[in-house]
Amino acid sequence: QVQLEESGGGLVQAGDSLRLSCAASVRTFNNYVMGWFRQAPGKEREFVVAIRWSRGSTSYADSAKGRFTISGDNAKNTVYLQMTSLKPEDTAVYYCAFSRDWGLGMSITKPDNYDYWGQGTQVTVSS
After folding, report:
1. pLDDT tens across 96-115, in order?
2. For residue 103, what pLDDT is reported?
3. Per-residue DSSP letters for 21-82?
4. Residues 77-97: tens digit of each pLDDT
5. Is-contact 116 79, C-beta < 8 A?
6. Considering only CA atoms, which of 76, 39, 72, 78 is closest in space to residue 57?
7. Is 127 within 8 Å of 12 (Cβ atoms)?
8. How far apart are CA 100 and CA 83, in angstroms?
C-alpha cells in the first residue's frame, strides 16, 4: 500500500507560480508511474502530467505544456509539480497519483490506471 500526501496548494494571483509536493511512502520510484491530476468543481478529474520514472519519460496535457513541470527527488520520496504563469482556469483540487509501471501499453493519462491517490490540495488562482 502506497500512501501519498500532497502539500503546497493555496490562493495565488494570475501569473504567479506555485510548487506542489507529494510525499510518497515508497523506497524507490523505480518501476512506478507518478502523475498529477486535477478536478475543478462540477468537472471530471483530468490529467495534468505524469512521469515514468524508470524510463525518465514525461507526458503533459496541452493545458500544462510550457507552464508546468513534474520532477522528483527519489532520496526524499517526493514528487513535485512546479506551476508557472497560473491562470484562473487552473483553479482545482490537485491530486498526486502512483501506479506500477506496467509498460508502454499502459495509458498514463487515465485516472483509472492509478492505484494510489493522495487526498488532494486546493489551488485557487484569482484574476
Report:
1. 999 998 888 889 999 999 99
2. 84
3. EEEE--S--TTEEEEEEEE-TTS--EEEEEEETTTTEEEE-TTTTTTEEEEEEGGGTEEEEE
4. 999 999 999 999 999 999 999
5. no
6. 72
7. no
8. 25
